[in-house]
UniProtKB/TrEMBL annotation:
Stored Gene3D superfamilies: Ribonuclease Inhibitor
TM stretches of this protein: 248-270
Protein name: Leucine rich repeat containing 38a
Membrane association type: Single-pass membrane protein
Species this protein is from: Cyclopterus lumpus
Domain (LRRCT): residue spans on this chain: 186-240
Source species, domain of life: Eukaryota
Cellular component per GO, a single term: voltage-gated potassium channel complex
Keywords: Cell membrane, Disulfide bond, Ion channel, Ion transport, Leucine-rich repeat, Membrane, Repeat, Signal, Transmembrane, Transmembrane helix, Transport
InterPro entries reported in the protein's UniProt record: Cys-rich_flank_reg_C (IPR000483), KCNMA1_auxiliary (IPR051432), Leu-rich_rpt (IPR001611), Leu-rich_rpt_typical-subtyp (IPR003591), LRR_dom_sf (IPR032675), LRRNT (IPR000372)
Localization, UniProt: Cell membrane
Length: 292
């Protein structure tokens, strides 16, 4: 409880002393702070991360706002954060390294934003991360291999309803704790690259909350969408030779260059032989002349 203020203290002193007394319990304007570790700014029409969030915040709820950007030192500042909800904002880019120092972060919701890419190094040190929600980012078409490696605790990964046409299966193989994965509602392409993902999904069906339902891929030729439940590993048997288009092109082009080399070699040989014959004829002629 605050001590009684001295009778004639100027108002600014009272302000300063009350600020000092409530240090650690400051609540950002228009947010709610139901306990010492929670700041709840859900649906406040915010266009940026509020100032004066207590540095020891552990649960920060910022969903349903219009926040387009988080400062790259955000998690350096709020290093006790365990739970960060940024769902349904306007984030389009995470600067590399923004979340890489978050060694305590367990829950991160970036769903329903406008992210286009998860660049490498994004979650570098997030070894405590258990739930990562990245769904409903319709332009998110690139999840590289690097950003998710090292997430050794990650149990739940949501990538549903994004713009993914492909996903390197090694991303999933590098997540040893993964229990739940959502991939439905992406414009997957049924090509040989997807074949590897298909095999992984078949073998890890229990990790998909709705099984193969809702996962479709489109055929490369006519774009027709095929539910994965209608496909089998046999559907991708043409990929088993593991020759991709690039491989074929290399084979064709090396074939062409081998034939070109062979033609040039034989031409060279032929002309050498021809010259040699002419030379030897010439010398024979000389010999004959000499004999005469
Ligand atoms: C997303 O946030 C906006 C702005 O607060 C809100 O109007 C909308 O209902 C929210 N959408 C969802 C699905 O929660
Ligand atoms: C989301 O990103 C796309 C592509 O980068 C852009 O065209 C669109 O205007 C963005 N939408 C919002 C609401 O920021």
């Amino acid at each position: 409880s605050p001590p009684p203020s001295p009778p004639c203290s100027p108002p600014f002193l009272a302000l300063i002393s009350s600020t000092l007394l409530t240090r650690g319990h400051i609540c950002p304007y228009s947010c709610l702070c139901p306990d010492h570790h929670t700041v709840d700014c859900t649906g406040r029409g915010l266009t940026r991360v509020p100032d004066s969030i207590p540095l020891n915040v552990r649960r920060l709820l910022l969903s349903n706002n219009w926040i387009p950007w988080i400062p790259s030192d955000f998690l350096v500042l709020y290093s006790d954060l365990v739970y960060l909800d940024l769902r349904n904002n306007s984030l389009s880019l995470l600067e590399p390294g923004t979340l890489s120092t978050s060694s305590k972060l367990v829950f991160l919701d970036l769903g329903s934003n406008n992210l286009t890419e998860i660049s490498s190094g994004t979650f570098r040190e997030s070894r405590s991360l258990i739930k990562l929600r990245l769904g409903n980012n319709p332009y998110l078409n690139m999840v590289g291999r690097d950003p998710l490696t090292g997430l050794t605790s990650l149990r739940e990964l949501e990538l549903q309803r994004n713009g993914l046409t492909a996903l390197d299966v090694t991303v999933l193989e590098s997540l040893p704790s993964l229990r739940m994965l959502r991939l439905e509602g992406n414009p997957w392409l049924c090509n040989c690259h997807f074949a590897k993902l298909f095999v992984w999904l078949t073998e890890n069906r229990q990790k998909l909350p709705q099984g193969m339902e809702g996962i479709e891929c489109s055929l490369p030729l006519d774009g027709r969408r095929v539910p994965l439940s209608l496909l089998s590993e046999d559907s991708f048997r043409e990929c088993r030779g593991t020759l991709t288009l690039t491989d074929y092109l290399i084979v064709i082009f090396s074939g062409i260059s081998v034939s070109v080399a062979a033609i040039m070699a034989s031409f060279f040989l032929a002309s050498t032989v021809h010259c040699f014959q002419r030379l030897s004829k010439g010398s024979k002629g000389d010999e004959e002349e000499g004999n005469d």
